[in-house]
TrEMBL record:
Residues 25-168 form the IstB-like ATP-binding domain. One of its GO terms (molecular function) is ATP binding. Gene3D superfamilies: P-loop containing nucleotide triphosphate hydrolases. This is Transposase. It comes from Roseburia faecis. It holds the Pfam family IstB_IS21. InterPro entries: IstB_ATP-bd, P-loop_NTPase. SUPFAM superfamilies: P-loop containing nucleoside triphosphate hydrolases (SSF52540). It comes from the Bacteria.
Length: 176
């Protein structure tokens, strides 16, 4: 997949040297830093802050931009049915009869590092898919790679990979 580099648009309100710096930041793929730097240059009050404070803001802007891009990429790769699912208070409703202690342990994500798989069982309409997606989203916020796949599709894909003599590659792909 080719990375499409953002282009810098010359800003008439900045000096030539400032525009050259901005262009270099974009060419180094640091568009977040460039945007934060430009905001500081355009803000007349930013000069009142210390160098460390201003530099920290620039770095934090780049960092959070990269973290957001990574999270969105991982979210897309996870193929969740409910990408907005979260471990909200509805999971603790006594009518759901869920073992909240187990859910809290799973939310920590230690089981992912071991490595273990998670199989959720229950009756129709019990919320298995929602719980699975919520645990996946929690793991994604920890910047872990996850994959949501229904058991029947996993078995079908596994059988297909086995029949095509590429089961080893398929199992490595699923292992992350």
């Amino acid at each position: 997949m080719a990375y499409r580099q953002k282009e810098y648009n010359y800003n008439d309100k900045l000096t030539k040297d400032q525009n050259l710096l901005m262009d270099k930041l974009y060419k180094m793929r640091m568009s977040g830093m460039a945007e934060a730097f430009e905001n500081q240059l355009m803000n007349p009050n930013s000069g009142l802050e210390s160098f460390e404070t201003r530099f920290s803001e620039i770095i934090n802007h780049e960092w959070s931009g990269r973290e957001n891009k990574k999270f969105n990429r991982l979210l897309k790769q996870a193929t969740l049915k409910y990408p907005a699912a979260d471990l909200d208070s509805s999971l603790y409703d006594p009518e759901r009869q869920l073992n909240t202690h187990v859910i809290e342990l799973l939310a920590k994500g230690d089981w992912i590092d071991e490595p273990n798989n998670l199989l959720i069982t229950g009756g129709a309409g019990a919320g298995k898919t929602h719980v699975a997606c919520a645990l996946c989203v929690t793991a994604l916020h920890q910047m872990r790679t996850v994959k949501y796949i229904r058991a029947n599709y996993l078995l079908q894909e596994s059988a297909h990979a086995h029949s095509e003599d590429n089961y080893y590659e398929y199992s490595n792909k699923m292992a992350g």
